[in-house]
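Inputs:
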Amino acid sequence: MSAVAFADASAAVQAAWTALDVLTDPEIPVVSLRELGILRDVRLGVDGLEVVITPTYSGCPAMGQIEDDVRATLQAAGLQGRVITQLAPAWTTDWMTDAARDKLRAYGIAPPQHRCASQPLLGESPLRFVRQAAKPERVPCPHCGSSHTVESSHFGSTACKALYKCLDCQEPFDYFKPY
Amino acid sequence: MSATANYLLHLADNAVVLGQRNAEWCGHGPALEEDIALANVSLDLIGQARLLYQQAANELGGDATEDRLAYFRDVPDFRNYTLLELPHHSALVGYAKSDLDYGTTIVRNFLYSALMVLVWEQLQQSKDEQLAAIAAKSLKEVRYHLRHSRDWLVRLGDGTDDSHARVQAALDHLMPYTQEFWTGSSMEAAAVAAGVGVDVAALKSDWDQLVDDALLEATLQRPKGEGYVTQGKNGLHSEHLGFLLSEMQGLARSHPTATW
């Protein structure tokens, strides 16, 4: 590859990153796909630009919308590329940036309380897991900061969230579950 | 058909059939939170089924697609466990929406999630890299399913006389169907030999531990679970699967060339 072509290519990758940086999650419009860890990579493949995205939950209905948004954004920026959906390594809430966590809180969604990487999935006794899981986490209220909260339901408005209620300010709120 | 494709279809059919069954609660849940929870569990299962059907379609090649595999195969082609296609109530002849029993739903989800927590954990080591990637995702999801169903099993079992009796009856009804988990099949043996599948029978003691631990807390008696061994994974199904598939496949079959 000639030096000129390389410069063009890396400029195209950079232009794609810049264009895609503004894209947000369709369900949570305050955090970007990049901050959530859904937008994994922009790279140069044999056929041109490749944008790599990864689904959060297997059945997340937003993935189709996200793919369409990425294509439309590339097109609007005058870039040609294809979208690759990659499953491994599996998406985890650990990839969320601190900025994303702050934005979630400000939006009224409590961010994940613990990291998943510290709990290796392989080798851990499922029995220990279910017993531990039976005790809902203490999650601080994103509205008033009180930790006097209770879980209303394991599953909230989307699969990735649980529903909580603050016993001090009485407001219900979503909790983004560690995944 | 390759051993891998057959095995992927078994896993995918399990997920899509239970996903479709549980989705029957959508709009009919016993409480708003449970309506949403079951819909979310279904969404995970249908998402897993899509990934598995996509990979099976890759293996099969030709004109196979995820939609063709889900919507244009018939009852004898499905490789799901019989347990997963049963209606949400005990053995009856004829049933209506008003017969839906949440205890049956919870017991089934518990028995199956306890198995799949163990299966997905092992399948992370599958030689089929895409299946290993699907397993890593599905494991995260099924842990929440197990947590949800176990929690309700304990609440209903250790609840009122009525809830205890109903969930015990559901357990008595469903436990015999779990024998199918442990009986071998040529489809699974071929997948294990290829390094793609997992030897489910070897997981039985871990599963027993998960089940007995929960039943003790739920003050429920474990039934013997003996009797006729169903063979859904060999394509021999109960009369219920046909009705489930006709509802699930009806639209796609009425408009076979439609895209949306």
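Chain B has one domain: 3-88+99-220+231-254. Flag for discussion at group meeting.
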